[in-house]
Design brief:
Length: about 400
Amino acid sequence: MLDRLKTLLRAPHIKASRTARLIQIEGTGRARWTPRDYAALAREGYLSNAIVHRAVRLVAENVAAAPLLAYEGAAVRDRHPLLNLLDRPNPRQERAGFLEAICAHLLLAGNAYIEAVAVPDTTDVRELYALRPDRMRVVPGADGWPQAYEYAIGGRTLRFDQGAALPPILHLAQFHPLDDHYGLSALEAAAVAVDTHNAAAHWNKALLDNAARPSGALVFAAGEGAVLSEGQFARLKRELEEQFQGARNAGRPLLLEGGLDWKAMSLSPKDMDFLEAKHAAAREIALAFGVPPMLLGIPGDNTYSNYQEANRAFFRTTVLPLASRMVDALAQWLAPAFGAVRLVVDTDDMPALASDRAALWEQVSKAPFLTLNEKRAMVGFGPLEGGDRLG
């Protein structure tokens, strides 16, 4: 045993994600690919829609910035090896970037995958990596539970078997009522609203490109049975495109020759209720991501009386539940390496919830039926000797 330990100490130790160098591994089990086009959803949503982009950033950045405490039994640890690992998960990412990526994957794909890199044949975890969900697939075992995960890129595949004491992959999934293995993303639930919002933006852009006027028709009425020649028709079409369409030609008067008359044909934006339809779609997108529309600058929503109230509701109903679920899953997954430790979001250190904290302190301090230690327990402090008296 001593000789083996000396060999391990002398041997150079190289830590790296297994997905950095992929090899083909044959294995049993039938793989199931994610049953939707994640790339298309991400392209039409996060990459092309300002509402989706801001909603995802708002949720992910605040979840990543949530302060954490580690609990070992009843003891609170503001510093712990697991917290240290999250502060520096891998050489290329800090805690904020790592947790933002995980949260964004959950919102956009409904699934997030984390790889743990440990010292070979041990549970000594040294690095964590967030893997792209569209490259991962579940390999169910005979009992229906995931037996392994396969990560594919560039025609190569790496298999992660989950039978070890510390499974190498943590799979976080949003609830999906019709799928046993993959989660339902907020973006997929809001897909119709995203398409509506994008179509409205494209319509508005096309309107600006066409002199900010509705389309119409030039009617030639020089005489009964008279028609334009092919040359006249081509010249007229070319002049309209070059001299009267586009933002730089907006407002330029249209000069018509004899026999030509302009007839507007399309409906106006007011008739189509264009702006309200766009705002309604934006509110549906915000609803799917759990972000109050007021925080995204969407007009027409008066659910909250002010910005501060909307921000507090956002933290209570969206940020805290998602952050708590993520850190609970991380602590449970890494328990073989770090023991029975719980990660808890420290709400006392969140400025957005300061008013809630102040209200709790005031209520507790004015409660004459509580002992001193009961009051301290309600606000997160330990008991004091002689504190079992009313006061």
